[in-house]
Amino acid sequence: MKTLPLEVPHMNAQEAEEVFGWILDGEASEEEIARFLLAMTERSETADEIAGAARALRARLIPIKAPENAIDVCGTGGDGHHTLNVSTAVSLVVAATGVPVAKHGNRAASSKSGAADTLEALGLDMDVAGETAEKTLAELGICFLFAKNHHPAMGRIQPIRLKLGRRTIFNLMGPLSNPAGVKSQLIGIARPAYVPIYAAAKAALGTERTMIVSGDEGLDELSLAGGNEVADVRGNAFEMKRVEASMIGVPNAPVEAIRGDDAKHNAAALKALLDGNPGPYRDAVIFNSAASLLVAGTAKDWNDGADQAREALDSGGARDLLKRWIAMTK
């Protein structure tokens, strides 16, 4: 068994890749891994450590074939706000506009209902969805890449994460290790001050265009409550920006307005959204969809992206896409 460097203040990218290789390959005990992850969380992970850890996870994943223009939309989780599943809804909306979405996610580790939990409550057979991911991505323009199916090395890590019940570097590694090899992403993180650090990690890994976003209140997506920190990453560089919901003509709303609960509750809210319900949940989904369409390169500006998102909802396109997806898993 390997001994993890609990006392090392920071690691460079190469050292982090090696250490996380040990962790993922089962060369350290569960107790030591838990202590190591908590120690990293307490001192905050560096960009080099995140990039190195992500490379270790990427080297061990099971990939799928995907369209060149496929994107991913996800949050790192761990923000403690227990909101409705915004990125899951955004994935459906964006896919309904014609942009393929390779949704990478998992069951809840530090929230009440993760993307997989909510989609399953809506009727999507997660086992079949995982087995048919390439097919649904090719035919419908959407798939769910269940982390357990594509990251077998994570099998022994998930119980540790559940036991810890809090954010760790694995929340940060997941979005950077999409099995479809997407070149563009919208990634929400739970710490606004950490956006440039995470953006530096993404830039080190390279991307066509990715937005790293965080609401001022620590929301791991674009927030309606006020301002948002955004890093616009292109290639190996990034630019910091400030954005607000007023940019697309939707009102501010407190985070409590999109508070979620368990999978049944969140699934009902998502169904109502797709059926045309107005309100803050819809506004949040439109805001984040606009950003997603910008990184995909199919929206010329924020308002164009918002208009495309509204059309996908109002036409029933997003709702019908979910129905066809569910039907393909029966």
TrEMBL record:
Pfam families: Glycos_trans_3N (PF02885), Glycos_transf_3 (PF00591). Binds 2 magnesium ions per monomer. Signal peptide: none annotated. Anthranilate 1 binds at residues 75, 106. Residues 12-60 form the Glycosyl transferase family 3 N-terminal domain. One of its GO terms (molecular function) is anthranilate phosphoribosyltransferase activity. InterPro entries: Anthranilate_Pribosyl_Tfrase, Glycosyl_Trfase_fam3, Glycosyl_Trfase_fam3_N_dom, Glycosyl_Trfase_fam3_N_dom_sf, Nuc_phospho_transferase. Pathway: Amino-acid biosynthesis; L-tryptophan biosynthesis; L-tryptophan from chorismate: step 2/5. Mg(2+) 2 binds at residues 220-221. Its cofactor is Mg(2+). In the C-terminal section; belongs to the anthranilate phosphoribosyltransferase family. This is Anthranilate phosphoribosyltransferase. It comes from Pontixanthobacter aestiaquae.
